[in-house]
Design brief:
Blueprint lengths: L7 H14 L6 E5 L15 E4 L17 E7 L2 E7 L10 H13 L4 E10 L9 E9 L20 H10 L5 E6 L8 H9 L4 E3 L3 H9 L3 E11 L12 H27 L2
Parallel strand pairs: 1-4, 1-5, 5-9, 6-7, 7-8
Antiparallel strand pairs: 2-3, 3-4, 5-8, 6-9
């Protein structure tokens, strides 16, 4: 694939990634968002592990539940790159900085990306701790990691084929539409009601810019999102949203879903 012009930083970081991991290329990327760190253990012993900041252009995550670690693992002859944490818009960084780690993975040869996060559900047909599949997204941060005439088609951003594999592996997982807000504040009840009316099922503060960057580089996408709050009066939200509890709920689900993520990567790459 022809790499987009001007993305020298991502290519340079991919070269450094190869040096640090001993792997010339990687096949898949798994981004482990809020509380998803325990899922990394299901991939087994890493062949390399180091802080994200050892890679050019990578920023240390500041949010709770984001470890700021990169791991390279081998699973059934496939090289998988794990990011334990991510950078968010609300940390004061430009969209390109948020997207840079995914662009680096794409420059390193990645063909499939699994993007995980935690969400507030706007629907009450789920339980806290449920993991849902991202079917589509709404970019309500109204920005983009793309600059200039880079017209990336997002009409089928989240791979139907990979989503089907996820449903086969975990039939209890529902498919939902994820809405990105900039944060770091949580939305009001009025905002949550508006989001429901425009078609959102979940709301969060990450993932979408990574998805745009991945599709620019023809990387196949699947998203897994943990329900850590259910929005609106009467759903327990009156007590407020505790960021520490958000992470704790996601960690419990991640430990349980780790083997599913491993199988999703392997079967997704072999589809």
């Amino acid at each position: 694939m022809r790499t987009p012009d001007g993305y020298d930083d991502a290519r340079a970081a991919a070269v450094r990634l190869a040096e640090l991991t001993g792997a010339e290329r990687h096949d898949a990327l798994v981004v482990l968002g809020s509380g998803w760190g325990p899922a990394a253990d299901a991939f087994g012993q890493p062949t390399a592990s180091f802080p994200m900041t050892r890679l050019p252009g990578f920023l240390a995550p500041v949010a709770e539940g984001h470890r700021g670690e990169v791991r390279s693992v081998e699973v059934e002859g496939l090289r998988v790159l794990l990011y334990l944490g991510r950078t968010h818009l609300y940390e004061g960084h430009a969209p390109a900085a948020v997207a840079h780690p995914v662009r680096t993975a794409a420059a390193a040869g990645v063909r499939l990306a699994v993007l995980t996060n935690a969400n507030g559900s706007l629907r009450d047909d789920v339980q806290l701790g449920d993991v849902v599949i991202v079917r589509d997204h709404l970019n309500l941060a109204f920005g983009s990691p793309l600059e200039g005439p880079r017209f990336v088609d997002l009409t089928d951003a989240w791979s139907a084929d990979i989503r089907a594999i996820a449903r086969k592996l975990a039939p209890e997982m529902k498919e939902r539409v994820y809405a990105l807000l900039g944060g770091p504040h949580y939305e009001t009840w009025a905002e949550a009601d508006w989001l429901r009316r425009i078609g959102a099922d979940l709301v969060g503060m990450s993932t979408v810019y990574e998805a745009i960057a991945a599709r620019e580089w023809d990387v196949e996408l699947v998203g897994l999102s943990t329900v850590t709050a259910i929005e609106g009066p009467g759903n327990g939200a009156a007590a407020g949203i505790d960021p520490t509890e958000v992470v704790a709920i996601a960690e419990r689900s991640a430990a349980r879903l780790g083997p599913v993520v491993v199988r999703l990567v392997v079967e997704g790459l072999r589809t």
